[in-house]
Amino acid sequence: MKAGLIVNADDLGLDAPTTRGIVSAYQRGIVSSASLMVTMPAAEDAAKTARAMDLPVGLHVSLTEGRAVARTDLYRLADDCGRFNLLPQRLIRVSRKDSTLITQIRTEMRAQLTRAVDLGLTLTHVDSHQHVHMNPVLFKALEEEALEFGIRRIRFSREPLRVLFLARAYAQILKRNNLPKWLITRAYSSRIKPRLERPDLFFGVLNSGALLKPVLLNILATIPSHKSVEICVHPGLPDPLSAAPGGPFGAFSRSVLRRFEHDALVDPEVIAFIQKRGLRLVSFDGSPKFSSTSPLSDPQQ
Structural domains in the chain? Predict the structure, then answer.
């Protein structure tokens, strides 16, 4: 991929507060791309908003949150009401020998891609909720399904070792169980040889939910300007009274941590630092971030 910095906001369409936070961070800050969850009730409104403001969007394949999109029997993946019933810890360990489950996952991936296109979106990339596609079996399946839709780019969730020294919110990282996720995705990444284009560097697992301003500045200070880099973020403007998924993820969606990430992404010091370094904000397809409502313009324009 061409050199540039992709700041991609996950969970677009999760709920209205999350979508508002992503939109704000795109208009006022450094977010340059987003990933849509079509399995959630707010997906249609989010897609409409993204189209209206020319927000580049990829598909955030969800196999653990919301309801399945496929209209066929997915008895291994979802319950009778269509709600996903497997934890990410189970999906990340799916074996190629479990052909029935893999077939159902591929069916659901295809249905979600179709749903996103039906919502009027030209998808720039694919990734997955909670990085479950870093299971080599699921990575291969997602690549093949994406190619059928003409999608040429994918997230490769392998963070460099130096991210350990850039983090500061270690207590929050441990509380959110991020270290095991980081170790697993790194271990699996060595078994994956991507066919699709992907950025040279990725940040976004270890500090997920804990990407405070000092951490973000640390990362921005170390990324090379001559490479393609993705920083995965989770901004939001949560409303404690709004409906959200249950369980630990639902608690995170309603927590102040979403707002902390939003505030870091729109912070004037962060914006000025990107401008000072001459970092070029782009989407997955290489298009530069430029909006009349944004404080950031493409330095090459």
Answer: 4-277 (3.20.20.370)
